[in-house]
Design a protein that fits this description.
InterPro entries: DUF3301. It comes from Rhodanobacter terrae. This is DUF3301 domain-containing protein. It holds the Pfam family DUF3301. By secondary structure, this protein is α+β, with helices and mostly antiparallel strands. It has one domain. The protein contains one helix and six strands. A four-stranded antiparallel sheet has the order 1-2-3-4. Strands 5-6 form a two-stranded antiparallel sheet. Strand 1 (44-60) and strand 2 form a beta hairpin. The longest helix has 39 residues, at 2-40. It starts with a helix and ends in a 7-residue tail after the last strand.
Length: 134
């Protein structure tokens, strides 16, 4: 009986180590994806890390798959911290939530910056003033 309990204990320990390794690889993939999305959207990924916020089952093409949610913080202009989230199934990004940026009205002039010429395709932007995700 002692051999069977030792074997079960060893199998449980192996399963825990395997799960930990799999989640570590998934987290590293999430960090790479967050870094890529921040670069693509002109944001700065703060702390160069993500944290697991949740896990849920999601049905994809009739199959139930585990979807992981990772939270991270970004900066729009270097003077703020805004939350962001990404959802992944396996190595694939399924959803992304980044802070929004409000358009600067043309009536408001920013000191030291000229407004774009009328008819140009340049849109001046500024960070949001409220701290809610949309």
């Amino acid at each position: 009986m002692s051999d069977l309990s030792s074997l079960l204990l060893l199998l449980a320990f192996g399963a825990i180590v395997g799960l930990w390794l799999k989640l570590s690889v998934a987290r590293e993939r999430a960090v790479q994806e967050a870094r890529r999305q921040c670069q693509q959207h002109g944001l700065q990924l703060l702390d160069e890390t993500v944290g697991l916020r949740g896990v849920r089952l999601r049905r994809v093409n009739g199959l139930r798959m585990i979807e992981r949610c990772y939270g991270f913080e970004v900066s729009i202009d270097g003077h703020d911290r805004e939350p962001g989230r990404l959802w992944m199934i396996g190595n694939a990004l399924t959803s992304l939530s980044l802070p929004t940026i409000q358009l600067l009205p043309h009536e408001e002039a920013v000191p030291g910056k000229a407004l774009p010429a009328p008819g140009s395709n340049v849109v001046p932007l500024r960070p949001r003033t409220d701290h809610r995700l949309h």
